[in-house]
């Protein structure tokens, strides 16, 4: 299976991708984790990405696309994957479809975790990661609305989009995803 998980800040992309990975036995690539690890190890990607994460902005498409092209060639994801936090822009979505065409693969599902804005703020602030300060969270929400929401229009007509109510508990969100994956 090949799926992507979309959602605003604190919508539970990391939480649900980990649960689904265990349930469905498929590897997860989390761009948020990749970037935070790269920053911690001060490598090329981390040095370039750091100022964007600190402000709550998206890392430039060129950098993310280059990274993902190489990552998707690795043997651990040759049989399937779940992309958590990627794509996040229309350009990344389009580029992902080119990569899939090149590999003669297809995307099975785009899972969208729909969350009220007030809950995005509440959950992010409760977590206290470096980029979980109020001004940064608000900027991340703005970027999500400007850059990521338009992707939904890209996937919806292709009938791959599963809309999930992410305001529920972790268990209820997971159950709704599994039920919709099975029922669809
Ligand atoms: P992410 O790491 O993707 O950050 P996120 O959106 O805040 O996290 P997520 O939705 O995974 O929330 P989580 O499960 O942790 O991105 C961080 C930054 O990286 C971005 O701002 C950007 O700069 C950069 N970036 C990443 N990908 C990029 C890309 N493709 N292009 C450009 N830039 C990119 O949940 C949050 C909290 O809520 C946790 O504490 C969790 O325990 C809790 N929670 C989860 N589900 C819950 C539930 N149902 N009920 C109650 N609490 C819940």
From TrEMBL:
<keyword id="KW-0963">Cytoplasm</keyword>
<feature type="region of interest" description="NMP">
    <location>
        <begin position="30"/>
        <end position="59"/>
    </location>
</feature>
<feature type="binding site">
    <location>
        <position position="36"/>
    </location>
    <ligand>
        <name>AMP</name>
    </ligand>
</feature>
<comment type="subunit">
    <text>Monomer.</text>
</comment>
<feature type="binding site">
    <location>
        <position position="168"/>
    </location>
    <ligand>
        <name>ATP</name>
    </ligand>
</feature>
<feature type="binding site">
    <location>
        <position position="92"/>
    </location>
    <ligand>
        <name>AMP</name>
    </ligand>
</feature>
<feature type="binding site">
    <location>
        <begin position="85"/>
        <end position="88"/>
    </location>
    <ligand>
        <name>AMP</name>
    </ligand>
</feature>
<dbReference type="GO" id="GO:0004017">
    <property type="term" value="F:AMP kinase activity"/>
</dbReference>
<keyword id="KW-0418">Kinase</keyword>
<dbReference type="InterPro" id="IPR027417">
    <property type="entry name" value="P-loop_NTPase"/>
</dbReference>
<feature type="binding site">
    <location>
        <begin position="57"/>
        <end position="59"/>
    </location>
    <ligand>
        <name>AMP</name>
    </ligand>
</feature>
<comment type="similarity">
    <text>Belongs to the adenylate kinase family.</text>
</comment>
<protein>
    <recommendedName>
        <fullName>Adenylate kinase</fullName>
        <ecNumber>2.7.4.3</ecNumber>
    </recommendedName>
</protein>
<feature type="binding site">
    <location>
        <position position="31"/>
    </location>
    <ligand>
        <name>AMP</name>
    </ligand>
</feature>
<dbReference type="GO" id="GO:0044209">
    <property type="term" value="P:AMP salvage"/>
</dbReference>
<comment type="pathway">
    <text>Purine metabolism; AMP biosynthesis via salvage pathway; AMP from ADP: step 1/1.</text>
</comment>
<keyword id="KW-0545">Nucleotide biosynthesis</keyword>
<dbReference type="InterPro" id="IPR000850">
    <property type="entry name" value="Adenylat/UMP-CMP_kin"/>
</dbReference>
<comment type="function">
    <text>Catalyzes the reversible transfer of the terminal phosphate group between ATP and AMP. Plays an important role in cellular energy homeostasis and in adenine nucleotide metabolism.</text>
</comment>
<keyword id="KW-0547">Nucleotide-binding</keyword>
<feature type="binding site">
    <location>
        <position position="127"/>
    </location>
    <ligand>
        <name>ATP</name>
    </ligand>
</feature>
<keyword id="KW-0067">ATP-binding</keyword>
<dbReference type="Pfam" id="PF00406">
    <property type="entry name" value="ADK"/>
</dbReference>
<dbReference type="GO" id="GO:0005524">
    <property type="term" value="F:ATP binding"/>
</dbReference>
<feature type="binding site">
    <location>
        <begin position="10"/>
        <end position="15"/>
    </location>
    <ligand>
        <name>ATP</name>
    </ligand>
</feature>
<feature type="binding site">
    <location>
        <position position="129"/>
    </location>
    <ligand>
        <name>AMP</name>
    </ligand>
</feature>
<dbReference type="GO" id="GO:0005737">
    <property type="term" value="C:cytoplasm"/>
</dbReference>
<keyword id="KW-0808">Transferase</keyword>
<feature type="binding site">
    <location>
        <position position="140"/>
    </location>
    <ligand>
        <name>AMP</name>
    </ligand>
</feature>
């Amino acid at each position: 299976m090949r799926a992507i998980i979309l959602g605003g800040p604190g919508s539970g992309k990391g939480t649900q991708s980990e649960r689904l990975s265990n349930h469905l036995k498929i590897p997860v690539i989390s761009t948020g984790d990749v970037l935070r690890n790269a920053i911690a190890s001060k490598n090329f990607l981390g040095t370039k990405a750091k100022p964007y994460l600190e402000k709550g902005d998206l890392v430039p498409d060129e950098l993310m696309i280059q990274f993902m092209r190489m990552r998707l060639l690795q043997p651990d994801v040759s049989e399937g994957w779940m992309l958590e936090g990627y794509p996040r822009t229309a350009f990344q979505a389009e580029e992902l479809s080119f990569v899939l065409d090149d590999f003669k693969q297809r995307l099975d599902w785009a899972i969208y975790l729909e969350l009220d804005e007030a809950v995005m703020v509440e959950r992010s602030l409760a977590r206290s990661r470096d980029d979980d300060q109020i001004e940064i969270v608000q900027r991340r929400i703005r970027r999500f609305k400007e850059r990521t929401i338009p992707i939904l229009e890209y996937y919806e007509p292709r009938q791959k989009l599963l809309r999930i109510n992410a305001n529920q508990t972790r268990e209820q969100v997971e159950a709704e995803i599994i039920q919709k994956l099975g029922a669809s």
